[in-house]
Amino acid sequence: MNPRPDDRQIDRLLAGLPRQAASPGFAGRVVAALEESARPRRSRSWLLAGVLATVLAAAGLWLTPRAPSPRDRPDDLRQADTGLMLEEHRRLTEELESLKTRLRATEPPLLYLGGDEGLDLVLDLTPVLQPAAAGARRGGIRPAEPSSPLPASRQPSNGGI
Question: Which of its termini does the chain have fewer beta carbons within 10 Å around, N or C?
Fold first, then answer.
């Protein structure tokens, strides 16, 4: 004996039952239910989540401590800051003047850029260090003149002329 009926047995049993007619409007109700389930439902949970996130962000900004503005500081602290800045400015000015003095002490203020046997490249820093004196000489341009004798290894050769 087979405890489970096969498909043919089920078809014979169903064929023996009386046929039922659908109630009026059955097809219309099924189609309406299918159309309703196919429509996207607008969930209010997204709207609620957006409103809640906005409220939390606003509350966070309102409750976050802000950095004090210089106007919020007491006058004695502002004066101390001003004094420190003036002192730093004075020190920087002295350091700059010291550097300029040391650079002027090297006569003339030339910067050797390099070269080879036939050419030496030298940059004159006088227009940078003493702009008024340099401007007096033909627009700040001066002809090349040896400031010190060149070593024998650097002397130009006249053999090619």
Answer: N
d(CA 131, CA 145): 19
pLDDT digits (tens, 9 = 90+) for 68-88: 676 666 676 667 778 888 899
The helix/strand/coil state of 122 is: strand
Residue 85 lies in a domain: yes
Q: Give a yes or no: residue 53 inside a domain.
A: no
The 10s digit of each residue's pLDDT in 43-61 is: 778 888 888 999 999 988 8
Q: List the domain range (segments joined by +) for residue 111.
A: 107-139
Identify whether 122 is part of a domain.
yes
Query: Is residue 114 included in any domain, yes or no?
Result: yes
Alpha carbons 147 and 112: distance in angstroms, whole number = 12
d(CA 142, CA 85): 41
pLDDT of residue 148: 56
Q: How far apart are CA 70 and CA 79, in angstroms?
A: 11
